[in-house]
Amino acid sequence: MLELDRLALAQGGFRLEADLALEAGGTVAVIGPSGGGKSTLLAGIAGFLAPQAGRVRWAGRDLTGLVPGARPVSVLFQDGNLFPHLTVAQNVGLALGPRLRLPAEDRDRVEGALARVGLSGRGGDRPAQLSGGQQGRAALARVLLSGRPVVLLDEAFAALGPALKDEMLDLVAGLVAGPERLVLMVSHDPGDATRIAARTVLVAEGRATGPFDTADLLADPPPALAAYLRAPDRS
Ligand SMILES: Nc1ncnc2c1ncn2[C@@H]1O[C@H](COP(=O)(O)OP(=O)(O)OP(=O)(O)O)[C@@H](O)[C@H]1O
C-alpha cells in the first residue's frame, strides 16, 4: 500500500495536500485541471520534491527521507526516458545498475525484458532507430527489469497517436500492473483512465483526493473536474 500521510508539497507559491492510501495491484489514474498539481504529486512520491510536512510510505516503509534512486519507484515522463547515445539494451540494462558492460547473465535478463515488450533483437539499436511506440516499449522494459513496485507515468504516452497510445496502455495493464505493483498514471484523457484504471485520484483545488471508482467519478464529477472535462482543449 502507498500511503500519503498528511503530505504537504509546495512549488513556488503553489501548495498541494494529500492524505490518502492506495492499495497495491493495478493502475490508478491521476486526473484534474491543468496546473492542479498532478506532476507535483508524482514528484513528491518519487522524491524529486521534499515535502513541507507529512510522510510517504510504501508497504509500511517510510520513504520520506530517501533520495529518488533509493526509493522503490520508477518514473516515466513524456520525453527523455532513453539516453540517445546508448543502445536500447544499455538503456534497459540501466535498471540493473550504472554499468554499461553487463555480464552475460544480465544481458540475458535485458533480452528477456525486451522480448516481453515485443522488441526482441532490437537491443543493439539506438533509440533514434526505434519508432515512438517502440521507444515507449523500451522504456517499459527498463521499468519491468527494475522490479521497482511503484511505477509513475507522467503523461508518458501523450505524444503517441490514439491507437499506439491504447496499445501502450494495454501493455501497462497487462505487463506492468501486477498484483504486487502500483501504477500511478497522470493523463489528460479520461478515456485512458476508463481503459485501464479502475481507481482514480483527483487533483484539484490544492488537494489530492480519492481513490474514487473511475466510472463513478466520471459519471458524476465534482464541479472542478466537471469544468475541466467540459473544456474544449484539455492539454
Ligand atoms: N518549479 C516550479 N516552481 C514554481 N512553481 C511551480 C514549479 N513547478 C510547478 N509549479 C506550479 O505548481 C502548480 C502545479 O503544477 P503541476 O505541474 O504539478 O500541475 P499539473 O496538474 O501536473 O499540470 P499540467 O496538467 O498542466 O501538466 C502550477 O501552478 C505550477 O505553476
UniProtKB/TrEMBL annotation:
The keyword Nucleotide-binding applies. It holds the Pfam family ABC_tran. SUPFAM superfamilies: P-loop containing nucleoside triphosphate hydrolases. One of its GO terms (molecular function) is ATP binding. Residues 2-230 form the ABC transporter domain. Keywords: ATP-binding, Cell inner membrane, Cell membrane, Membrane, Nucleotide-binding, Translocase, Transport. Gene3D superfamilies: P-loop containing nucleotide triphosphate hydrolases (3.40.50.300). InterPro entries: AAA+_ATPase (IPR003593), ABC_SmlMolc_Importer (IPR050093), ABC_transporter-like_ATP-bd (IPR003439), P-loop_NTPase (IPR027417). The keyword Disulfide bond does not apply. SMART domains: AAA. This is Thiamine transport system ATP-binding protein. It comes from Wenxinia saemankumensis.
